[in-house]
Amino acid sequence: MHDINGWIEFLDSPFFNLFDRSLILRELIMQIRRIANSPATVLEVGCGSGLTSVLLASMGYKVTAVDANVTLVEKVKRFTAVFPNLIGEQADMFRMNFGDKAFDVAFSQGVLEHYLTMTSSMRL
User: Fold this and answer.
1) What pLDDT, on the 0 to 100 scale, is given for residue 46?
2) Cα 72 to the chain's mean position, in Å?
3) Which residue range(s) make up the domain with 96?
4) What's the rounded Cα separation, in Å, for the pair 75 and 28?
5) What CA–CA distances, in Å, run from 65 to 8, 23, 25, 103?
6) Which of 62, 65, 76, 109 has an alpha carbon within 20 to 30 A of 83's alpha carbon?
7) Residue numbers in the chain where pLDDT is lower than 70
């Protein structure tokens, strides 16, 4: 029988969170690249601090990063001087004004849990 205490500590550690996020990010990037090559247009809904959007912009994608939090969008906008193919916009994910088929790829990660009261009455 193996002692799992070491694994429990690892799984609860900030390192695992970073490791786990890097695996998720790698898979996400692979899926986006499978669907569309740069300079395809990409929409990230709930971009947070913009790490994924900046990474995609650095790969040549035309990225629109949207978040409801204006402070987070301002952080994304700081990168637009370096990446003119990156746009940061403040908007509610349920009230965006983009036309149909405006983007080649659209994705969201870790966002719906912030809308628990709204999503509890919605069928996803």
Assistant:
1) 93
2) 12
3) 37-120
4) 22
5) 35, 21, 16, 12
6) 109
7) 1-20, 111-124
Tally of structural domains, the chain? 1
Residue labelled with tokens 């978040």: 67
Residue 71 lies in a domain: yes
The CATH number of whichever domain residue 47 belongs to comes to 3.40.50.150
- By CB atoms closer than 10 A (0-12, 13-18, 19+), residue 50 is buried
Determine, yes or no, domain membership for 16: no
Closest by CA position to 86, among listed 44, 51, 57, 46: 57
Q: What residue has token string 């650095």?
A: 58
CA distances from 68 to 28, 43, 64, 118 (A): 22, 14, 13, 15
Give the model's pLDDT for residue 124. Answer: 47
Please give the model's pTM, rounded to 2 decimal places: 0.76
- What is the per-residue DSSP string for 61-121? -EEEEEES-HHHHHHHHTTTTT-TTEEEEE--TTS--PPTT--SEEEE-S-GGGGHHHHHT
